[in-house]
Amino acid sequence: MLSLLFCLCTSLLFGQRDLIVTQADQQIRCRIVDEGLTRITYFYIDDSGELKKSEIFKSLVKDFVFDHFESDLPKTKIPKAKGIEHEPPIEKREIETEANVSLHRKGKTKWIFGFDGGYGQIYNPDFRATDVYGVYQKRLMRGGVFGTHFTYLPLKWLGVGLTFSDFRSKNSAENLAYYNPLYDKTNTGNISELQSRKYLGVALVLRPKLSDWLCAVLKAGPGGLFYTDRGTFDKAQFRFKGAHWAAKGSLGFDFLLGSPVKPRNVLLGLEAAYTYGRLASMDFGDGQGDTRLTAPLVLDHLTFALGVRFTGIPQILR
Questions:
Q1: Does 162 have pLDDT greater than 80?
Q2: Looking at residues 183-209, what average pLDDT do you find?
Q3: Do 35 and 261 touch, CB atoms closer than 8 A?
Q4: Can you tell me the distance from the alpha carbon of 314 to that of 14, in angstroms, rounded to the nearest whole number?
Q5: Distances (CA, A) of 276 to 199, 221, 280, 302
Q6: Is a pLDDT exceeding 60 seen at residue 196?
Q7: DSSP β-ladder status, 51-57 and 85-86
Q8: How large is the greatest C-alpha to C-alpha distance in the chain, in angstroms?
Q9: In 3D, which of 238, 227, 220 has the Cα closest to residue 167?
């Protein structure tokens, strides 16, 4: 059994499917066994046909690719193993690591797909809760947010993206004096509401590296805001809706996760975003179509979200 395991490990090392390209454009066909923060450890076959172990600082590496070669070395070029030698480490030099190398390797798709969830708050400095109904409305100004986004990076730090988010809040009350926009008057009774503010837009994405495991993410761009408010007024159902142009900007951070040996394709993301949007008209579901509001409905909101990003197909789905 031990003999079989040894043969299997030796075969993998002799496979030599990985590629390292140095700053001097030297190409090293090898098997990468460890990627640290400052150096790469690999096995290679020297000119005498022996399997050897070596290390190289990332500051000396221009690029490296896992499974660059589709097949192992031809059997005629694989010599009999004469033992594994360990070469002394390269002389220590100033380290210049590459942030998120797996996203920028030659021949690889430079895209990121992710999901987010968190907290949202309407920002309206002119709002004042002067009565019980105002307190009820204030509760509707905060809630949960979830979303998804796609980013394509033609350059290491610059790209374009598509983003979608849904900021929802709900509240209910009994024996409350509330304003009914259907009849433009104040009623007293039971009320229940679920409000949704969906945003869909494009963005310019800046993604500079901060360290070997951390990138900043800045996004800004135009989009559309789609608002719905549905619920009941004393058991009578209603659904109001409206849409308008909007804009969104965000600042976030991506933290690299995953195994250091295999290409990293999972990231943990934090994001703070501000969405600007004002609704000038609304459809109250009375058959009259869009009705212009006496004052624009402020839909500006701040969101704080935590999420997961993928730079490739998750291992569990392969």
A1: yes
A2: 92
A3: yes
A4: 28
A5: 10, 11, 13, 9
A6: yes
A7: parallel
A8: 93
A9: 227
Its pTM stands at: 0.67
Structure tokens at 79: 């010599």
CB 114 within 8 A of CB 310: yes
Q: Give the chain's domains with CATH numbers.
A: 16-97 (2.30.30), 103-317 (2.40.160.20)
**Token pair 């009994």 is at which residue?**
174
| Predicted pLDDT of residue 156 | 82
Rounded Cα distance between 13 and 32, Å, is 9
Position 23, amino acid:
Q
Reported residue count of the chain is: 318
C-alpha dihedral, 313 to 315 to 317 to 318, nearest 10°: 90
The whole-angstrom separation of Cα 305 and Cα 299 is: 18
User: 5 is written with which tokens?
Assistant: 């395991």
Helix/strand/coil percentages in the chain, nearest 5: 10, 60, 30
Average pLDDT over residues 174-190: 86
- Please give the Cα distance from 61 to 65 (Å, whole number): 11
Evaluate whether 245 touches 224 at the Cβ level (below 8 Å): yes
Q: What tokens does 158 get?
A: 């610059």
Query: Residue 68 has which token pair?
Result: 């660059």
User: For the chain, what is the mean pLDDT?
Assistant: 81
For 294, the token pair is 């006496």
Arithmetic mean of pLDDT, 69-74: 70
Distance CA 299, CA 241 (A): 13
Are the CB atoms for 153 and 311 separated by under 8 Å? no
Average pLDDT of the residues in 142-153:
96
Task: State the Cα–Cα distance between residues 155 and 137, nearest whole angstrom.
Answer: 45
Radius of gyration for the chain, computed over Cα atoms and rounded to the nearest angstrom: 29
